[in-house]
């Protein structure tokens, strides 16, 4: 076998090995589907009186997300985002507001893109059972566990209910619905 033939065989073997590795990698990629509801513990306190637009915040996943016996997102995974908009008391209703934008979640040591909308804000002291991730549409939050003084409008904006500022203390539970799937490795 001449040198040129040997080089072609090595190149062909490398391409086949790369294709096998790529297809194996694709087969191991799974996703947490859009529409999944996840409870996050807010790590950064936010207050409409002192918070600025574009201010960064962090939260953690409260309950692991599992599928077919595999953990896709671990409890304690860090979620990052920023304040999309903030408004002080205004209008007849005198409602302050904060809109949160979620950007990434740490999955298996890597940052994955996250797009989600707040659907409820809960008081962790009033939750009776540990929160569980839900798949599918949100029918409505538990009104008895809501954080006092706030509610969530369609579109995920958190507004004050008592004519004061929006106060989201560290530890408040943000119930969010995924707007897009989260790609994760199934090897965990």
Could you please describe the fold and organization of this structure?
The protein has one helix at residues 3-27; strands spanning 29-32, 37-42, 46-47, 56-61, 65-67, 70-73, 78-87, 97-107, 110-113, 116-122, 150-152, 158-160, 167-168, 173-178, 182-185. The protein has 188 residues and is mostly beta strands. It has one domain (30-185): Lipocalin (Beta Barrel), CATH 2.40.128. Strands 2, 4, 7, 8, 9, 10, 11, 12 and 14 form a nine-stranded antiparallel beta sheet that branches. Strands 1-15 form a two-stranded antiparallel sheet. A two-stranded antiparallel sheet has the order 3-13.
Distance between the termini: 45 Å
The level 1 CATH classification is: Mainly Beta
What structural class do you assign from the helix and strand content? mainly beta
Number of domains: 1
Which sheet architecture does the biggest sheet show?
9 strands, antiparallel
Averaged pLDDT, please? Answer: 77
- For the secondary structure, the number of strands is 15
**Uncertain stretches of 5 or more adjacent residues:** 2-27, 134-142
Beta-strand level of the residues, as a percent range?
Answer: 35-45%
